[in-house]
Here is the input.
Amino acid sequence: MFSGAEADNVMLLIQLNQFGELIWAIFFAYHGVVVVGVIVKSEFMPKILGSLLLIADLGYGLHGFGMISRLSLEFRVEPVTVVAATTGKLLFIFWL
Here is the structure.
């Protein structure tokens, strides 16, 4: 289907796409920390909701940094991130 050089280019583009997703995760974590700061300063939202969202956002950031730096954090951080993100985001949605 592809020649050797074309297959190498396709693999390079796939790897660049995966790297871009990790960079997106880091920026998403930063955005989440800013949102948590607004929630904590707010008197409308409960502080526990901000704490759950902060744990989720730190998990997103750790996942992105861990994968970029090739640390083996994925299996340790991902379950915590999934549980905290699901809990925090669902409670945030239902609170609104």
Residues 4-41 form the longest helix (38 residues). The mean pLDDT is 80. The chain has three helices and no strands.
